[in-house]
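Notes on consecutive records. When two proteins share a document, each keeps its own sequence and its own token line. Never mix them. Below: protein one.
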Amino acid sequence: MANHKSAEKRHRQSLKRRGRNRAVKTRIKNVVKSVREAVQGKDKEAAVAALKDATKVLDRAATKKVVHWRHASRSISRLSKAVNALG
């Protein structure tokens, strides 16, 4: 454990951030999974709705630097491509 006041504070902050980042990453996994399930089920309406939600979540995570912006952009692009292929 840290011995200095500033190091203790840093440790507390890192624990808080870790918890927040883990929650965001779990949310990303769940929304991406919901889009993929809708695409597999060939349900266009559900896929479009899930894609809209996934786009919001991924963009927010990229803005907050939880995931790299290129990772978010690539994920959105691939999901959009899959949803549009249902057309």
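Protein two starts on the next line and is unrelated to protein one.
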Amino acid sequence: MTTPDTPTLLEFPCDFPLKIMGARCDDYAQAVLEVVLRHCPDYDATGMEMRPSAKGTYLSLTCTVRATSKTQLDALYHELTAHPLVKVVL
């Protein structure tokens, strides 16, 4: 587990891509966007990339956020991974 004091190789602020995968359903992209905006209010939703899986069961979303700190990224990652519609965050 990382703490706010854990060293990071990232230099802030920086653009940081997050790949978020979950079951393809009507509310999935909007739910992910709401979480991202809570942590990165200046995120431009038009930059969200969507890619369905080969069978169309899952949807991968890529959101490149402007990260300002490790604490911000950690909080965003934890909220996304705890969301019931999200399966994996990379």
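For the record: The chain has one domain: 18-89.
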